[in-house]
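S1.2 Input.
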Amino acid sequence: MQLQQGIPSVCEVKYISPQKGRGLFLATPRNIVKGEVIYTERPFVAVQHVRNRSEAWTCGYCFRFLGNLNDQTNKLCQHLKLPHPKNLPPHPKFNFAPTQVFECFSMCGECYCSEACRTQAWNLHHQFLCVGQITSASHPLFRFKTHSIESNELFLLAAQVLACMISRHIASNGKESLLEIRTLLLNSFVHRPIWEVLGPECGLTLDELKNMVIQSLELLQQTFQAIFPNTVYFQDLLNPDFYSILLGMLELNDNAIGFDSPLEFYLREIESISSAEKKQAEEILTPIIQKLEDIQNEDDEEWEDVDDNEELGDEGEDEDEEIETPDKVIPRIPNFEGFGSFPTTAMMNHSCVPNCIVNFNGDFNAVITALRDIQPGEELLHSYIEESDPIKRRREELKVYGFVCDCIKCSSGS
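S1.3 Output.
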């Protein structure tokens, strides 16, 4: 549980006001120029979206894509029920560093890119959350994971936090109490109970939300009771008050994690290889892309009626308010998709005119990069939402964070 990585030396935390609380400020002796990396940060906890796991075969700890390019095409073809493909021709301009593949100690299906990642994940949380030795679907851990997948993946992240807290307590030989670890956690992030964070827009009534949370908690209590029958972990961690605050904290502070597959980079550089090799590569990749497009089209048709109904009931945006669509390369091969919590980055306040951006370059490390020149002592700001959206939509999406943005863009009504 890595809550004490420390604030990067290029930053400092300052108190701003009762409304805004604290913020993150640049503490370098010189300007940071546009495009310069300000700092990088490893997540406190992070998970891959369940729906993405069958499309993006990645390390269960650091999220690097596993194996080599041919391993990736093989995995995609298995998922899409396509014939086993031939090997891709080598690419002179694209050098994807292959990884080894290490299976979970208990053979649950989780894989890792190195012995270090496997051991780190096991020691931090996976030893308590692994289903490799579970043979019954009625086991509380199996039921907890099923419930999380069917209701809200945030529960999976919460379970990882609880497992990390317990493993940290055990690693200290009990010298660091669970109450002390809990206090450290809550001091590191803004937090409120989940029912104060999620409103009616989540599609659940308050009673439905509370019942869903209690059901998740009860399954976790049963899981940890089976592992630690004679301990009092429930008193400080597995109680409704703390669990609701933990979920609210994660909802308020989670950050999307995403980056492209190496196969996508290969496709973008396919014109650089010889015509014969290009033909060979296209014979392998075209059926994969076509099958993925067919699946996407089916999903779009399934939700078309829902979207139409929403439009009928929508008050709509102002007629003169157009949505700006940034120029983005739409990937043809599924990228990695997940989410996690980053203690330092969570201290950054929001602006619809941000001066930095959070990106990911092939693993779970957040890379905070300047969008413009930033002066020493200036507050670091990034956007919690899509800042190119119209102001009405931006304000609606920011409601979950409990504030109204007063940046230059919002103050001018644009």
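S1.4 Remarks. The first strand starts at residue 11 and ends at 17.
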